[in-house]
Write a structure and sequence with these properties.
The strands form three sheets. Strands 7-9-8-10-11 form a five-stranded mixed sheet. Strands 1-2-3-4 form a four-stranded antiparallel sheet. It is 41% helix and 22% strand. It has helices spanning 3-32, 83-86, 89-94, 120-126, 129-134, 152-161, 166-176, 188-198, 221-231, and strands at 39-42, 48-53, 56-61, 67-69, 73-76, 79-82, 100-102, 109-115, 137-143, 206-208, 214-216. A hairpin with a 5-residue loop joins strand 3 and strand 4. The chain is α+β, with helices and mostly antiparallel strands and 232 residues long.
Amino acid sequence: MNMKKLFTFCFCLILSSMGFATNLTLQKSLQKLGLENVEISASPLSELRIATTDMGIFYISQDGKYLIEGKMYKITPNGILNLTTQSLIKKLNSYAKEMIVFPAKHQKYVVNVFLDISCHFCHKMFAQNKAYNDLGITIRYLAFPRNGLDSLLAQQMEAIWQAPNPMDALTQAETHKIFPEQMQSPKIVKKQFDLGVQFGIQGTPAIVLSNGQVIAGYIPPQELLKILQQTN
């Protein structure tokens, strides 16, 4: 390795270690404020970093002196893009194996739906799974008990998500109001609920598109298809 390459290699290592130390310092500062599960990552603006926490997403200055709560948007030729929710898509997709999926035979689009098994409009949306699938829309369901993680509802949803056949268990709950007899302490549900909080979700159903856009409330199949066609 010549001197130029060696210098470049060492310089990159220094920058990397500096970045890690900065992230760790920012993480500890936020933890002192009572925020938990803090993850620091780069943001589109070099002056700010993204702080993903149990209470949602914040932006923190490089020196740790300023904290911003709210969403960051990018103005594009196709409209406004929500960068805050878009930053969570990788994390969302990492939960794919723990979602309850109703796949389209000829898949064109994938949407993620946070639902509550006691929610009227969730029932309405769930009843139209086939209609969504027939339009090429795969539905991936995540749990979001509106009464919180300490509720009986959260335990029921955990039992559904951990059932031998989660798809069948969710169908029984949504269509026949039949719930598993054995309740379970929220684990999968907690992860999904916390993610919903980070997306800023407050009610159900809440639809998250592949670009991070969040649509609150029930959307009929044909209307959802139009939105997806315009988004992609």
